[in-house]
Amino acid sequence: NAGVMQNPRHLVRRRGQEARLRCSPMKGHSHVYWYRQLPEEGLKFMVYLQKENIIDESGMPKERFSAEFPKEGPSILRIQQVVRGDSAAYFCASSPPLGNTYNEQFFGPGTRLTVL
Amino acid sequence: DAKTTQPPSMDCAEGRAANLPCNHSTISGNEYVYWYRQIHSQGPQYIIHGLKNNETNEMASLIITEDRKSSTLILPHATLRDTAVYYCIVLNQAGTALIFGKGTTLSVSS
Q1: B80 phi and psi, to 5 degrees?
Q2: How far is CA A24 from its chain centroid?
Q3: Is B46–A106 a contact, with Cβ atoms under 8 angstroms apart?
Q4: Nearest CA-CA distance, residue B106 and chain A, Å
Q5: From CA A30, how far away is CA A12, in angstroms rounded?
Q6: Are the CB atoms for A102 and B50 separated by under 8 Å?
Q7: In whole angstroms, what separates CA B32 from the centre of its chain?
Q8: Of the residues A22, A28, A50, B64, which has the fewest C-beta atoms closer than 10 A?
Q9: Chain B residue numbers touching A103 (CB-CB < 8 A)
Q10: Is the pLDDT of residue B45 over 60?
Q11: pLDDT tens per residue, range B84-109
Q12: CA atoms within 13 A on the CB side of B99
């Protein structure tokens, strides 16, 4: 059973360009989460999605950032008009349906975004 | 949201038990405690979680105090590959997101 997959693993963009990060959850998982890790810091929650629905986007910056999880295909985190401060590691996690009271999330290897 | 507090760093000799403490005095009665680790810059790896009772799996043991205000993650026989940042985590109030602090950097040496 393949784990969470993210691509690209490394992405370099110039200021003002767009960045698209993709995440394929584990088989059987219908919930996707995006986290951002700035250098020397812990991970910070950005957004939680189910298929075709954004459930919690309380951690998303108000501008330039968007996320989707379509019915078919991977989840996409999109950053428009990137700035140097967007340089970070972006991790995706997935979980099975939240039938239990705990929430076990499995992480992908991350996408390292560098903005020049 | 409940918060967790961990020492910034710990050292452990290879082959010895590593005991990593965590304080979560504001945790509510039905909140789980999760432990993850991050080796170098890889994605966080799930280790274990617990509510009230002590838990054990193939990776580690989790000891939770009776008042649930603190817990200890135990790696029974640490190896060099256990060198990582260990995070003691609770969920946010909505139950949707893991709240990562700065964690404990565990250094295992031979």
Answers
A1: -60, -30
A2: 10
A3: yes
A4: 15
A5: 29
A6: no
A7: 12
A8: A28
A9: 32, 91, 95-96, 98
A10: yes
A11: 999 999 888 777 888 898 899 999 99
A12: 17
Q: How confident is the model at residue A35 (pLDDT cuts 50, 70, 90)?
A: very high
Residue A101 near chain B (CB below 8 Å): yes
Following DSSP, what letter does each residue of A54-98 receive, concatenated? EEE-TTS-SSSEEEE--SSS-EEEEE-S--GGG-EEEEEEEE---
List of long-range contacts for B26-32, beta carbons under 8 Å, 24+ apart: B26/B2, B27/B2, B27/B68, B27/B69, B27/B90, B28/B2, B29/B68, B30/A101, B31/B2, B31/B90, B31/B91, B32/A101, B32/A102, B32/A103, B32/B90, B32/B91
Tokens of A26: 């584990």
Helix (H) or strand (E) holding B8: none
Residue A94 has phi, psi (to 5 degrees) of -135, 160
- SS3 assignment, position B82: helix
Q: How many CB pairs under 8 A join A and B?
A: 66
What are the φ/ψ torsions at residue A85 (nearest 5 degrees)? -65, -10
Q: Would you call A44 and B41 a contact, using CB atoms and an 8 Å cutoff?
A: no
Cis before A8 (ω within 30): yes
List the single residue in B with minimal CA-CA distance to A90. B43
Mean pLDDT, residues A17-27: 96
